[in-house]
Amino acid sequence: MLKLDRYKQIFGKLNRLKEGALIPFTVIGDPDYKTSLDIIKVLSNRGDILELVLPFSDPIADGSTIQKADVRALKHSFNTNKIFDFLKKARKFTDKPIGLLVYYNLIYQYGLERFCSKAKESGVDSILVADLSLEESDDFVKVARKNNIATVFLVTQLTNTKRLRKILKKSKGFVYIVNVLGVTGIRVNLEKSTLDLIRRVRPYTKLPLCAGFGIGKPEHVKAVLNAGANGTIIGSAIVKIIEKNLNNKEKILKEIDKYLISMKNAAKFKVQK
């Protein structure tokens, strides 16, 4: 079975059930190696797809919550080789699609061909490079596709129709809809422009649309699914639970589990077509 089929299978299954995909997100190695693996087990049990972040010293697309998580992970000397070993261990206990969110400097330093080859060996299904421009992405797309890795790109409120079409041509797996202008982080309310963006993109592609940046409440999940999204990416709220309970690893796991149950229940909201 081709790895890319994992996305097709899970979105196909959820579409038949009239559910949205819950995509929990965490920084690899936060707050430490063992606890991070245990967290990913919880994310796999409750979520439909995993979005895992490679810790980086200068994550320009992320807010303070994710930045602190990067610092915690990097204190444990996480390097790219260690991350791939970590991913191989994670793949042993989950058959869910695994997407990586990475900054291009890590790929560049490791070598593009080598990075994508190791990602394939580690069971990775997709890669989103947060700071790679569309205009400079040809080599990345070519090498990723050669390794049967889906290439995920961001669509924002500033993306015009011409650029959207170009993004969609290079996109596989799903399209990442950025809910807000700015960095990641928990928002109190969803802006109307978020829902308008989903509705604007929907007619241009049959690829699943997954909304992230600022999704933190069950009502947010319901709103984006009702607007036409196929999934929601939940990151900062999970990482905040880790940050608040650094001295109680058992509580981290219990609180994340409880939170994801509520979010998955919201994702079972019957999507209006």
What does this structure look like?
It is a single chain. With 273 residues, this protein is an alpha/beta fold. The protein is 49% helix and 14% strand. The protein has 12 helices and 9 strands. The protein has helices at 5-17, 33-46, 64-74, 80-92, 104-110, 112-121, 138-146, 161-170, 192-201, 218-226, 236-244, 249-267, and strands at 21-27, 50-53, 98-102, 126-129, 150-152, 154-155, 175-178, 209-212, 231-234. Strand 7 (175-178), helix 9 (192-201) and strand 8 form a beta-alpha-beta unit. The longest helix has 19 residues, at 249-267.
Short description:
The chain is of the alpha/beta class and 273 residues long. The protein has helices at residues 5-17, 33-46, 64-74, 80-92, 104-110, 112-121, 138-146, 161-170, 192-201, 218-226, 236-244, 249-267, and strands spanning 21-27, 50-53, 98-102, 126-129, 150-152, 154-155, 175-178, 209-212, 231-234.
Taking the sheet with the most strands, its summary is:
9 strands, parallel
What ranges have pLDDT less than 50 throughout 5 or more consecutive residues?
A: 182-188
Strand order of the largest sheet: 5-4-3-2-1-9-8-7-6
**Percent helix:** 40-55%
- How large is the share of residues in beta strands? 5-15%
Helix-strand layout with pairing:
Blueprint: H1 5-17, E1 21-27, H2 33-46, E2 50-53, H3 64-74, H4 80-92, E3 98-102, H5 104-110, H6 112-121, E4 126-129, H7 138-146, E5 150-152, E6 154-155, H8 161-170, E7 175-178, H9 192-201, E8 209-212, H10 218-226, E9 231-234, H11 236-244, H12 249-267
Parallel strand pairs: 1-2, 1-9, 2-3, 3-4, 4-5, 6-7, 7-8, 8-9
Helix pairs in contact: 2-12, 3-11, 6-7, 10-12, 11-12
